[in-house]
Amino acid sequence: MEINNVQVCNVCLSPSDDGEKRVYVKALCGGEEVLICTSCIPRVIHESGELVKSNAEVKATLGL
Q1: Residue 38 pLDDT > 90, yes or no?
Q2: Calpha distance 20→2 (Å, rounded)
């Protein structure tokens, strides 16, 4: 998801502003648009979409 122009992975919660060079891919999960970093895409593909947190779960985890 995107929070204040910062992308956050809906799987691992990695933010785009931490200095690491990440690529984020937009996807749909449960009818909701989510962002997944390329490091997490293989996990989602080979394991399960259950790994993807909803935007509400991401906000709650980050205390927003």
Answers
A1: yes
A2: 16
Three-class secondary structure assignment of the chain: CEECCEEECCCCCCECCCCCCCCEEEEEECCEEEEEECCCHHHHHHCCHHHCCCHHHHHHHHCC
Residue 60's CB is within 10 A of a number of other CB atoms, namely 11
pLDDT at 25 over 90: yes
- Give the length of the chain: 64
> Do residues 8 and 60 lie in contact, with contact meaning Cβ atoms separated by under 8 Å?
no
Paired tokens of 19: 């200095």
- Pairing label, strands 2-3, 32-37: unpaired
Instruction: Record the tokens describing residue 7, joined without a space.
Output: 């992308």
Counts of helices then strands in the chain (DSSP H, E)? 2, 4
